[in-house]
Amino acid sequence: MVTIEDYEDYAKQRLPFGLLEYLQRGADKDATLGRNVEAFSKVKVIPRYLIDVSNRTTKAEALGKQFKLPIGISPSGLHKRWHPDGELATVRAAQSAGTIMIVSSAASVLFEDIAAEAPDAEKWLQIFMVDNKSVTYDFVKRAEESGFGALVVTIDMPVKALRYFNKKSDWKDQHKMVNYDRYDHPNRKPFLRDQATWAQLQELINSTALPVIVKGVLTPEDARLAYEHGAKGILISNHGGRQIDGTISTIEALSNIVKEFPEASLNGFEIYLDSGIRSGLDVFRALAIGAKFVFVGRAPMWGLFHSGQQGLENVMEILRNELETLMGQTGCNTLQDINSNLVQYQFPF
């Protein structure tokens, strides 16, 4: 297995149809899913040569901590769908790779067990501001007690997505979101979140010492609101095209946000991105336009399905090596050398 595409092809050839559809498809007509990938291809790299690039490093920083690469693992649910070890394999791979794992609240392994499996890994917990507030705040407490480094609050799922492929498939998931088992919720499912507001986000932020990242931001207005309500950063995301169809791509959103909210970086407000990244080249593009760190979702699951921890580690190393190689072609020794002068693009396209 040499490329990310090799792992994707392996999954396409072997996963049951319904499970493959779940992993590969998006919401409604898949327009956002396709635009995410296409938009990255519109960003052209401008090489620079006759620069000493013999000391290249992909070392990165997020929330004041150091990592071996600026590529983390996005939150996704029920990793036991892809491998029997589930999130335990994922967190071991994150620890080995020296990067961040964002653990989904829909994990198939208890948060506490994930944390204990790889104590040196940097783990952030993804949560929703669900209508059952006691669930949300208990998740926060569990994150604090288990040594998670941050909370990632997803805001782009106020209602259930239109995923027509799910309705056409006879595939039934056999795995459980075990972290919800302990909660009694006879009246409303704990996933419902159509009552969440910015005021509630600020209340949550004020309730914990953990830094909070807001995930699902696509506009400068929401980026600024996240900053004003006390978040330490945003994760630009459209849920990999899985939640709402017809949106702008995340790389377009990144361009808009850094242009219209330039003071963010001056105030230590960190901007991350996921959705659409398929290569180290895409990572370079995002960093050049203004992301501090990126996260990938589907590619790690392709690796996990292939060979568990080892497959996921190899996926992360492929991405890291592709990024480092491109740095050598553009005169960059460090991530700080990557800047907007090294790319050319025009959005919308």
Written description of the protein model:
- By secondary structure, the chain is an alpha/beta fold.
- The chain has a single domain, classed as TIM Barrel (Alpha-Beta Barrel), CATH 3.20.20.
- Helix content is 41%, strand content 13%.
- It has helices spanning 4-14, 17-24, 31-41, 87-97, 111-117, 133-146, 164-168, 198-206, 220-228, 250-260, 263-266, 280-289, 298-329; strands at 44-45, 60-62, 65-67, 71-73, 100-103, 122-128, 150-154, 212-217, 233-236, 270-273, 293-296, 343-344.
- The strands form three sheets. The chain has an eight-stranded parallel sheet. Strands 1-12 form a two-stranded antiparallel sheet. It has a two-stranded antiparallel ribbon with strand order 2-3.
- Strand 8 (212-217), helix 9 and strand 9 form a beta-alpha-beta unit.
- Helix 12 crosses helix 13.
- The radius of gyration is 19 Å and the shape is globular.
- It catalyses: 2-hydroxyoctanoate + O2 = 2-oxooctanoate + H2O2; a (2S)-2-hydroxycarboxylate + O2 = a 2-oxocarboxylate + H2O2.
- Keywords: Oxidoreductase.
- GO terms for molecular function: (S)-2-hydroxy-acid oxidase activity; FMN binding.
In short:
Its EC number is 1.1.3.15. This protein is an alpha/beta fold and 349 residues long.
Q: What percentage of the residues does DSSP assign to strands (E)?
A: 5-15%
Structural Rg: 19 Å
The CATH homologous superfamily is called Aldolase class I
Number of domains: 1
Q: Whole-Å distance between the termini?
A: 34 Å
CATH class: Alpha Beta
The strand line-up of the biggest sheet is 4-11-10-9-8-7-6-5
Helix fraction, binned, reads 40-55%
